[in-house]
Amino acid sequence: MMLGRSLSLILPAALLSLPVIGCSGSPSDSPVLTAEMPLHLEDHLEAAVVVGSEVPVEVPEAVEWRFDEPQPEWASARLPPTLTPVQTRTPDALRLSVEEANRLPFGNLLGGAIYVDLPDWEREDWGYVLVRARTLENVSQLRLAFNLREDPGSQDNPFRFSGESVDVINDGSVQRYLLRADWSPPWEGAWEGPWQQLAIGINAEEPAGIEILSVSVIPKEAVYADAPVGVRTEVRTSAHRRTLYTHAPGRLEYRVRVPEAGRLDVGLGVLRDDDPVTFRITASSEGTETLLEETYADQEHWAQRSVDLSDLSGQTVSLVLEVESEREGAVALWAAPTLTGRRSTEKPNVIFYIIDGAAADYMSVYGYNRRTTPNLERLAAEGAVFEHTYSNSTWTRPSTASFMTSLHNSVLGASRGWAADPVPEQAVTMAEHMHRAGYQTAVFVSNPYAGTLSNLERGVDVFRDAGVSPNSRSSAELHQDYWRWREAYPAVPYWVHFQTTDVHPKWDQSRDPVAPFAGLFSSPELRDTYNEWERQLAAAAGFTHAPWLSLEALEQTGINYAAFFNAARSLYDESMAHQDYQLGQLVERLKARGEWERTLLIVAADHGSASAHVPDPFPPKWGPMFRSSVTRVPLIVVWPERVAPGQRFRQPVSMIDMLPTILDLAGLPMPEVMQGQSLAPLLLGEEGWEARPVILDEFGIEDTGELSGYIEVIDGQWGASLLIDPSPSDRLDAPSDIPKSRVGDYKHSRQRRPVPLLLYDLWNDPYTQHSLHEERPDLVEKYTKFLKAQFAAHQALAQQFTPGGEVALTREQLQTLRTLGYIQ
């Protein structure tokens, strides 16, 4: 039977390895590694002696079916006779539909399904099923199933085993969905026998369809077959780890000088439950000492271990990582193997704390009339506050990528859809800079756009990328993850990036502030009213929940704008108070542990409240990005004994300045390419800082490959916003599917402006109610010329970077995106 083409380059970015082969000389020839800073062993494979670790001769190849050509072996599943799945061909895909006739008694539609026969595969050999698909219809889920029942009879499900299901992005873009091939719900019982059929199905609440472009099945060991040893990012239970892999039997031998109070921290992992691996760590100078020996066979979890090397302090030893298994070629994973000792550097720990969707406008530390941030007020008294800081874009993905690389959205490649656009490999991230300098690195985020969906796991030892339910508890859970990481990797210095979603709304239900903060600024009745208003607004806009607010929907429902604003603001304020409390608790614990004096803490945000579903207090007519509710964010910097307390700076600054600022304060080299500037001279009272106009930009990619979107500038008193549209005539008479006077999430709009450039006096019109493009043609000419030149410079700089391409979406990531309101 023909299975389709074998393939070697279909793997998503999250599955790609970085193969490196160590030297093959004798241990005595190897360089001696030292650990003045944390020593990441996976970064020094060139200094290791590799013995064994042979790649198996026979490794299954990935298999792909492409539906731009007929694939007659794919058939419709044998559903009960009254239910009819529909599959039709399009020029480049197989369309799978579900019809009204498939509605089940409990209300939902039984999704259509197609399946293919397999040649009795061993299911344990296979890791993932990768589905490329697109739809503009309201498909709720894409799902896997396995092995037809011998007699399906009248059962709704003709398959013996269910598999993973993922939410679907319904914006018409091509997306890649990554589903586990070796997982079924535990209540269905243990898997028995071979893998005989693979099925792809859909679920929907109403008749709908999806176009399947290709289906690929990826062996577990395919990504490890390129080299005997290598480095890649591995994930277990939402914990991504920078991992060194080897094949059994094999050993890696390093020559290291053990630091005072030395220890080796490492996670152990395997690919298969049926393939136990024995891990062994030894050290030898005059004799050989076995420091750890353990057989491990849990493919779902990491085993975190710490090896005490203090008895060898000051000695040069051969440190050996060795693996054995009954099956030759079995893959063993050493997660973030890090050798550390007593602190021997003055470089600070760095905590880069981003509150997702936090607006300075609603923080009492910035003069807001509700006491939402008393802990930040106390922190501000210990450090420096920037009064006018702006994010560079209006939502998480472009904004986070910009401040992590000090490069604008149009330079990094703009946006292709809701889930694509990882940061290009050539753009060095903050985590990579810190990791290369020897820092231990960790990231704890509950928004996947601040994580693996943006390819920001690069250079991170431990990466937590998962949602929290409800979102308003995010900070508490992420802090717990942080302290668990510090227990596993207690050495210093470290760099950690938080990105909490406490104030990001729970879009499919009402906001859910945490007790005792729930009720601080609202009442149960107000919350119920707000919940009902959201339901009405969603129905008026034609959505299952309200992804943004439109004036048209408010008018249609008769909901009072001011009342809705005040209700949303009150619930937002309660979540902000919880976030502030948790941040205060984190600081108090750092102080109690004696870490505070050597810690640089930066508190900021990726965008403001209007992108977190709190509308503007006054709805703007055309709404530029730089209006205060959208992109004015907090920026507070505290570093005891280095940054003078009580400073407040009124100069406008940009979040794109964060990367050079942190590197400068830590005494590390600057990026070769950056668009921000260091704020260290301001913070330390030194010369060398000059005020610059603040640039914001946000772009999408047209079918032609050209960019369309907005580039803006804040220049003292003036704010100017320029529309870049390569084909305006094509849209002149096109019906808009998004209300032009929509309030809130600016990223969705293609508002019809009266002119390409809008101009605002930000000193006298901070809520951007009146554009001065008619009154001040001189400034229109000036800023049109300026912004066009800026955009041209961005496009020229973008030539240095290759777009990151598609990202494979996992079930957990899609669930989080839906909760945060990015997808319907």
Would you give an account of this structure?
The chain has 824 residues and is of the alpha+beta class. It has 13 helices and 43 strands. The strands form 7 sheets. It has a 15-stranded mixed beta sheet that branches. Strands 1, 6, 8, 9, 11, 14, 16 and 43 form an 8-stranded mixed beta sheet that branches. A hairpin with a 2-residue loop joins strand 39 (707-715) and strand 40 (718-724). Helix 1 (374-382) packs across helix 8, helix 6 crosses helix 7 (551-557) and helix 6 packs across helix 8. The protein is globular and about 80 Å long. The two termini are 40 Å apart. The model is unreliable at 1-23 and 731-750 (pLDDT under 50).
Q: What is the straight-line distance between the termini?
A: 40 Å
Portion in beta strands: 25-35%
What can be said about the biggest beta sheet?
Answer: 15 strands, mixed
Radius of gyration: 28 Å
What is the β-strand count?
43
Topology:
Elements: E1 5-7, E2 18-19, E3 32-33, E4 39-40, E5 49-52, E6 62-66, E7 75-76, E8 86-90, E9 93-98, E10 113-121, E11 126-134, E12 139-148, E13 159-167, E14 175-180, E15 195-204, E16 208-219, E17 230-236, E18 239-247, E19 250-257, E20 263-270, E21 277-284, E22 288-296, E23 303-308, E24 316-324, E25 331-340, E26 349-355, H1 374-382, E27 384-386, E28 389-390, H2 396-405, H3 409-412, H4 430-436, E29 440-445, E30 462-465, H5 474-488, E31 494-500, H6 524-541, E32 549-550, H7 551-557, H8 561-592, E33 599-604, H9 628-631, E34 632-633, E35 635-638, E36 647-649, E37 653-654, H10 658-665, H11 680-684, E38 694-701, E39 707-715, E40 718-724, E41 742-743, E42 757-761, H12 777-798, E43 808-809, H13 811-819
Parallel strand pairs: 3-19, 14-43, 26-31, 26-33, 27-36, 28-37, 29-30, 29-31
Antiparallel strand pairs: 1-6, 2-17, 4-25, 5-19, 6-16, 7-10, 8-9, 9-16, 10-15, 11-14, 11-16, 12-13, 12-15, 17-18, 18-25, 18-30, 19-24, 20-23, 20-25, 21-22, 21-24, 27-35, 28-34, 32-41, 33-35, 38-39, 39-40, 40-42
Helix pairs in contact: 1-8, 5-8, 6-7, 6-8
